[in-house]
Each structure stands twice: as C-alpha cells, then as structure tokens.
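Q: I'm a student working through a structural biology exercise. My instructor gave each of us a protein and asked us to get a predicted structure, then write a short paragraph describing it. Mine is Response regulatory domain-containing protein. I'm not confident about reading structure output yet, so if you can add a plain explanation after the tokens, that would really help. Here is the sequence I was given:
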Amino acid sequence: MKTKTAKAVPKKALIIEDEGDLCLLINILLDGKGMEVEHVQSLAKAEEFLQQEKPSLVLLDNRLPDGFGIDFIGHIKSQHPAAKVIMISGVDAAASDVAIENGADVFLKKPFTKAELYKSVNELLA
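A: Happy to help. First, here is the predicted structure for Response regulatory domain-containing protein. I'll explain a few features afterward.
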C-alpha cells in the first residue's frame, strides 16, 4: 500500500489593486514564492471574495474606484483576524500611520522594490 505524502497547501493571497501592470507584477512575484494569488480591482469585488475565501495575505491599494483601502482594513480584520494586510499607496505618505492604526501589518509606499515586498511577505507569513 502506498502512503500519500502530505502536500503543503499554498498560502492564499488577495491583491486588491486597480492598476493592471502593478497587479501583474505583484502576482508574478508572489506566484514565484509558491502562493496561490487572486486579484480584484475594487472593494466590492474584494468583499465578494472575502465571503468565499480566507486569504493569509491581503495586499491592499489605498485609492480604488469605489473607495479607500485604508477604510477597508478594519473590515478585512473583523472577518479574517489572522489575515496579514499590506497597505500599498503611492500618493498618501501620511496614510502610513492611519493604515497601521486601522490594522495594517505593513505599509509599502509606491514605488517599492521586489526586496521590500519579499521582506514584508516573509516576515508576515513566517
């Protein structure tokens, strides 16, 4: 009788970002880390996703077509307290403090480097 080797379940990441190029880049970088990555472009779509799935990691842009990511952090944390949130913003450097106060685990200012992204993900999911 053969024994089945337990396969590691990949960690799930949700990218909430409306810039297609940046989303694709983050997706490629995280996929290279063995993560299962999903992408939505609005808070409404993020809400639908979060009702069905339990991501380990959420990368959240601040300025989205239907609102501000910074206001959505508390909602993510209330539904999925174990989820780690990386807030991403290029415009609002002052948003860093508010994002952290609202429950974000890390704040990355655009443009960020691959090394900064990897460091944040590795620290949060270690």
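A: Here are two points you could use in your paragraph. The first helix runs from residue 20 to 31. The longest strand covers residues 84-89. It's a good idea to check both against the output above yourself.
Q: Great, thank you!
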